[in-house]
Amino acid sequence: MLICPKCLAFGKPRVSPHKASVRRIVSCKMSRAVSSSDSGFFQKPPVLTNQFTSDPHLGRILNLYVSHSVQQKAIPEFKSLGDIVVSEKISRLIENAERELPYVVQYDEWGRRIDKLVTSEGWRGMKVIACENGLVADGYDNEKWQGQGRLVQFIKVYLFNPSSATFTCPLSMTDGAAQILSRDPAFKEIFARLVSRDVSEMWTSGQWMTERTGGSDVSRTETQATKTSSGYSITGFKFFSSATDSDMALLLAQTPPSGLSLFYAPLRTASGQGFNGVRIHRLKNKLGTRPLPTAELELRDMKGELVGKEGCGVKNISSVLNITRCWNAISSISGAQRAWNIASAYAAERTVFGTQLNLLPTHLSLLSSMNLMLRGLTHLAFHTILFLGSGDVLLRLFAAVAKAYCAKKTIEIVSECLEACGGQGYMEETSLPRLYRDSQVLSIWEGTTNVLSSDVVKTIPKLVTELFAWAEKKGVRREMEEYLSRFDGMDQVVRFTRAREISFELAELLVWALVKEDAEREDAGVFERECLLYWKSARPQVETGSQAQDRAKIDYEIVYGRNPEYRHSRL
Ligand SMILES: Cc1cc2nc3c(=O)[nH]c(=O)nc-3n(C[C@H](O)[C@H](O)[C@H](O)COP(=O)(O)OP(=O)(O)OC[C@H]3O[C@@H](n4cnc5c(N)ncnc54)[C@H](O)[C@@H]3O)c2cc1C
């Protein structure tokens, strides 16, 4: 029996009025061409358009949170970056950065130790794009962005990240360093370099915490700093230091007897000749983020300056982590969104069983539910950005929850999108394997899921009043009461045993509050209402009977309704 794809797609009986579609299948069966290496069928490649104008979530976020006057100024910059990130030029930079991996020349011709780190042109090119587009600078430019610089900055981070060959890693650490150094006038010149819009001036920063003894638990740090007449001398071994090509680092070291302290240290000596007491022990051999030079470093008498007070290292680095976790949350959702964009563009071009892939209800339902999931994650991540610089104590909790939840969901979404492109999804040329590999680290660095969840469990009791106030404003006080009363009923052992569930449940409650608020706005449409249904129970209710009849139509609208053009740029 012949099945009409149009009828199948929209859940109607198989006796079809769509004769034309049926005839097409018949004729297709009768005249099958013989293929050769250069004749027969070739799949039309999926194409991505401007990543700002074609993204329905970004437009919504912009309208919700950014004032009209700032939008007027920012939109041309977003559009320009939206084009850059799908341009031929950036594709070449990514390819180059992924092919020509960083390496270290340990000795010169005469056997002298030099530890010269060589990075690719593609990797270095990313710094130029980042700097010219103000990826760090915008967050601090309150004059230009009328106090909304953080939102403008993170919309740019969202656009840039999936095409950055993970250059957003050093950028996030640079932002964290800029934020903490901005508090101390002694670091005024360093701060100016970190937020510079001039690539010849701009510095990037590393963040060296993890040692062989541990990254989650830095209390066993072995690196020591000793006070000298001109500052501190730092000696020890750092096990993970990404962006080894940076100009400076913030690092933790023991200052007995006061404990762990935070230090600023330039990587090179004042003359610019040679390292400031740093030896590159070796570069890491990683699953992903391969263009990013991550190294093990030996420090011998590295000259550094104390940031804050002795013994306050963990407290000081925590404020840096709030920033890098925000970067991580936004980078997560942007990677997932890019993977989804590729999968939906592919489905629009691919034909299976005589019909377009994006008309098959099963496939459409998958794309649609991932898109609704992404809308919720986008709300959570960008809402967290609102707390940056606001002095709101909820920042720590939101940053931990958003980082942990968005990272985990991203790994899931990218994996699904890879499968959604069939065998081609597994091929490097589609970018999906790169996005997949790179997504795995998002749940590890800046705090693993367990570590963040444990932090959430520890933080909740300190922020009950603030959580209630937030929930009250969002109209979900009852739900928050239920959540907190269940939390209250658990003893410490249960709380830590169930820390992940507690943390993820909080994430889902926060998302639910945000999508509910969005769906209640006057201009809310089918997307916002469907999003509300999806997040009501974190998963859509299984529909039966007549409801299911309309499902494919709604799914199509969710997947393609506001994003119909995929014609300009090749992947
Ligand atoms: C590509 C890459 C780049 C990196 N770059 C940097 C960098 O630039 N600077 C830097 O400082 N670090 C960097 N890291 C290190 C990273 O931050 C750490 O790997 C991470 O914090 C985990 O620490 P660990 O590796 O010591 O694992 P461990 O701390 O040993 O963790 C092992 C497991 O134990 C679990 N665990 C730990 N503590 C708890 C707890 N209290 N409760 C429950 N479970 C727990 C963790 O969730 C994890 O699953 C990088 C890592 C990678 C992969």
UniProtKB/TrEMBL annotation:
- Record domain Adaptive response protein AidB N-terminal: where: 50-196
Required co-factor(s) are: FAD
Per the UniProt record, one Pfam family is Acyl-CoA_dh_1
Limits of the Acyl-CoA oxidase/dehydrogenase middle domain: 207-301
- PROSITE patterns for this protein: ACYL_COA_DH_2 (PS00073)
Q: Which residues cross the membrane?
A: none
This protein's UniProt keywords: FAD, Flavoprotein, Oxidoreductase
Taxonomic superkingdom: Eukaryota
Which family does the entry's similarity section mention? Belongs to the acyl-CoA dehydrogenase family.
Q: Mind telling me what this protein is named? A: Acyl-CoA dehydrogenase family member 11
- Organism of origin is Neolecta irregularis (strain DAH-3)
